[in-house]
Amino acid sequence: MRFEIVKGIKTGNIEERYFINDRSFDCNPSANVDINVAIAYLNLGVDSEDMCVKCLWGFSPRESWKEAKLFVPSAVEGELRLVGEYEAGLTWRIDKNKMWESYFDKESGWCCIGNSMLEAEDTAVKVVNNMIAVVDNTSKLKAVWVHPTFV
Fold first, then answer.
1. In angstroms, how far is the first alpha carbon of the chain from the final one?
2. Alpha-carbon gap, residue 86 to 13, rounded angstroms
3. With 114 labelled, which of 22, 56, 57, 127 sits at a CA distance of 20 to 30 A?
4. pTM of the predicted model, to two decimals?
5. DSSP 65-107
6. Residue 129, burial from CB neighbour count under 10 angstroms (0-12, 13-18, 19+)
7. Closest residue by Cα to residue 144 from 111, 107, 121
8. CB-side exposure of 39: number of CA atoms within 13 Å?
């Protein structure tokens, strides 16, 4: 599964939230998505009109997050586009071989799903106001960083 970063395009006012009682992520306001990329028990929502990631949603109990000191990547403004032909209404799993782990830095409030270690060739893009995606030099998604509002 390949992704490309489209620099300079602003996504809008979408913000990721973490619902403590439901132990889940979702965005506000809701985003129109009809393709899902599954990561652990979470989904990256993609709009089939432009193939861009619009939000992160799904179950993610805080008890499963590993505490860590995280160093948030600097990110360009833009969008993350899913490359290829994907049928609307379906879900594709990105972490087939090994479920991605989640890390949380309680000092900064950032959560990282996936690989938190940045390499020189990695590129980070600010997808929504408080979410960053990291793509490696082979165009594969490496991590999703979220600084959610806890509600």
1. 33
2. 26
3. 22
4. 0.94
5. PEE----PPP-EEEEEEEES---TT-EEES-SSSPPPEEEETT
6. middle
7. 111
8. 23
Structure tokens at 28: 């506000």
Two tokens at 17? 């939230």
Q: What are the residue ranges spanned by the domains of the chain?
A: 2-150
Whole-number percent of the chain with pLDDT over 70: 97
Local structure of residue 9 (DSSP, 8 states): -
Say what the pLDDT of residue 46 is.
96
Site of tokens 């109990």: 61
> In which residue are the tokens 């709009």 written?
47
Cβ neighbours for 22, distance < 8 A, ≥ 6 positions apart: 59
The span from the CA of 11 to the CA of 29, in Å, is: 12
What gap in Å lies between CA 18 and CA 110, rounded to an integer? Answer: 11
